[in-house]
Amino acid sequence: TQLLEQSPQFLSIQEGENLTVYCNSSSVFSSLQWYRQEPGEGPVLLVTVVTGGEVKKLKRLTFQFGDARKDSSLHITAAQPGDTGLYLCAGGGEDMRFGAGTRLTVKP
Amino acid sequence: DVKVTQSSRYLVKRTGEKVFLECVQDMDHENMFWYRQDPGLGLRLIYFSYDVKMKEKGDIPEGYSVSREKKERFSLILESASTNQTSMYLCASSFWGRAPAHGYTFGSGTRLTVV
Questions:
Q1: Which residue of A49, A65, A83, B66 has the fewest C-beta atoms within 10 A of its own C-beta?
Q2: Any chain A CB within 8 A of the CB of B3?
Q3: Multiple choice CATH, B4-114, 3.20.10.10, 2.60.40.10, 3.30.70.600, 2.60.40.3390
Q4: How many domains does chain A have?
Q5: What does the pLDDT look like over B55-87, one tens digit per residue?
Q6: pLDDT per residue over A50-82, tens digit each?
């Protein structure tokens, strides 16, 4: 089983700050995905990264896939309270495995 | 609006009861999955299915079984519920061959408490 480790586990910041969360593995992945989960809901896909070194931007969110395709990062610029949630990375084949997530709280 | 629907948001069951968690998707997806989510452990794969009447064990199948009689419906069965099965259960689906690129669509989850 391919394991994904996410850090930090918890992150609490003020509105307007920048932050980066990480997803690391000892295994090589053909692609990695990032999801966001809000309380009482299922995870929702944010992005898929496929190519080593790839950078994708989604408004204030920047996703990067490591050159060796073993790790990924999510950077949020000028965080807002609406960014609050659990951020999960996932990878694998048809049956994907998930990290434990980073729980982000953005305070007004 | 496409969706994955889980029949119950909250369930409370007694130890030893047989429990059925139902999941229905309206996207004609071939793949369906059951995960449980626990704090600090993330989502762990219980069972999955690539087609009707097919099932595959995930990482933690012990104490669970599944049924997929129709393409749109995937049921998770706890044969004899125990307190360590108290958890959030998430159902997901995807098209065959497209999960790594397009990801899963999840239901809203069923929070099961076994007392």
A1: A83
A2: no
A3: 2.60.40.10
A4: 1
A5: 999 999 999 999 999 999 999 999 999 999 999
A6: 889 999 999 999 999 999 999 999 999 999 999
Q: Do A100 and B41 touch (CB under 8 A)?
A: yes
B window 66-105, beta carbon within 8 A of A: 90, 92, 94, 96-97, 99-105
Residue A53: CATH number of its domain: 2.60.40.10
* CA dist list (Å): A38 to A43, A61, B9, B27: 7, 17, 15, 23
Residue B42: which of A42, A45, A100 has the nearest Cβ? A100
Whether chain A has a CB inside 8 Å of the CB on B61: the answer is no
pLDDT at B1 over 70: no
Q: Which domain holds residue A76?
A: 5-107
> Who's near A12: CB < 8 A, 6+ residues apart?
A104, A105, A107
User: Could you count the other beta carbons within 10 Å of the beta carbon of residue B53?
Assistant: 10
